[in-house]
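Saturday, quiet lab. Running sequence design on the structure tokens for the scaffold JK sent over.
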């Protein structure tokens, strides 16, 4: 039986991200009601662990954790098929809404694939920052049955002005686009953008051009190459972006105190280099951390640039590793943070390489 499995979600700063697709079956035969889709699976959970957890409700005949074809990274959802329909119903009753690590599982019946239900997921940008899921639902409900909605938030819980709505049918999603795209919401002065969220046939691996680094610092950050292959940083050292600074930029006094101790930072890896690519995404190596650095410090430092899947800190040695979901996000974080100053220390930030590991083990 073919199932409505969308291609892997992607989260890029210059591309529309996609939430984990949720699929629901309402009126199927008994035979169809044995297959479940589990959304919001923690990224470090294995297929074997999922099968073991759901086997407590009955006999699991198959279990499939969906992974990115290129990286092997979990995409946050899985399919579990039971031998009997009553076992599947029991799993939905007991596991739907269960909290696992920092995720709340969404467990529902998977439905057979059809052209009518494919590609019904919308990406919305330009939303007011105070909008919640219920506000988005109220805006889009007149155009059809909403399967799920999601508003993206930053690390502090504030809305990022973007979100997703998945309709039951594609024609409902199209109606919402026709009516709401470029519409100015009451009480706001900006227009919202509503469009389909990365249809599968357009989701090919893409890497950002250096000119695609986000404004307003994009032009200033475009590197000039020196003969050693690294970028030449000019006056920009005194105004490096710092997510932990109240203004968003490191202080000039701090940068000045660090300047004499700084080394020439290395450039991000070429898009054609896959040394930083791991099973948990793109791995960033950061060196020169303050002595009191914590994993929370690293989360706050890197989370403004995108989704973090894992953080590993070696505080006693002054370095750590951060895994980010997409190349675009990792690339941008490196360009903004490499050479930035924190508590008198200049950070060296680059993609993880075998050379990093050998240097730190020595």
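Result came back. Writing it out in full:
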């Amino acid at each position: 039986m073919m199932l409505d499995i969308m291609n892997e979600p992607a989260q890029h700063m210059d591309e529309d991200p996609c939430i984990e697709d949720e699929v629901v079956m309402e009126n199927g035969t008994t035979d169809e009601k044995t297959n479940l889709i589990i959304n919001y699976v923690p990224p470090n959970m294995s297929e074997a662990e999922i099968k073991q957890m759901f086997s407590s409700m009955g006999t699991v005949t198959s279990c499939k954790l969906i992974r990115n074809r290129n990286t092997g990274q979990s995409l946050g959802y899985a399919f579990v098929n039971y031998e009997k329909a009553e076992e599947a119903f029991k799993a939905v009753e007991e596991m739907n809404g269960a909290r696992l690590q920092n995720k709340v599982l969404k467990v529902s019946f998977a439905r057979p694939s059809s052209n009518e239900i494919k590609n019904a997921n919308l990406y919305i940008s330009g939303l007011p920052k105070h909008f919640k899921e219920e506000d988005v639902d109220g805006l889009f409900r007149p155009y059809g049955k909403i399967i799920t909605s999601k508003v993206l938030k930053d690390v502090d819980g504030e809305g990022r002005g973007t979100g997703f709505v998945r309709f039951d049918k594609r024609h409902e999603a199209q109606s919402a686009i026709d009516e709401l795209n470029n519409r100015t919401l009451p009480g706001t002065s900006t227009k919202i953008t509503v469009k389909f969220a990365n249809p599968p046939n357009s989701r090919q691996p893409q890497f950002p051009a250096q000119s695609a680094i986000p404004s307003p610092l994009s032009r200033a950050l475009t590197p000039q190459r020196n003969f050693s292959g690294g970028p030449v940083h000019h006056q920009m050292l005194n105004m490096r972006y710092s997510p932990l600074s109240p203004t968003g930029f490191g202080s000039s006094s701090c940068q000045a105190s660090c300047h004499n101790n700084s080394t020439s930072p290395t450039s991000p890896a070429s898009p054609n280099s896959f040394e930083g690519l791991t099973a948990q995404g793109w791995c960033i190596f950061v060196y020169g951390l303050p002595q009191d650095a914590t994993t929370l410090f690293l989360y706050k430092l890197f989370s403004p640039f995108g989704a973090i899947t894992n953080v590993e800190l070696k505080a006693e040695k002054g370095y750590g590793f951060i895994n980010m979901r997409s190349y675009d996000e990792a690339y941008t974080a490196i360009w903004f943070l490499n050479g930035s100053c924190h508590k008198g220390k200049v950070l060296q930030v680059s993609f993880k390489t075998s050379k990093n590991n050998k240097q730190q083990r020595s």
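Notes for JK: The chain has a mean pLDDT of 71. The CA atoms of residues 126 and 192 lie 4 Å apart. Ask whether to fix the surface positions before the next round.
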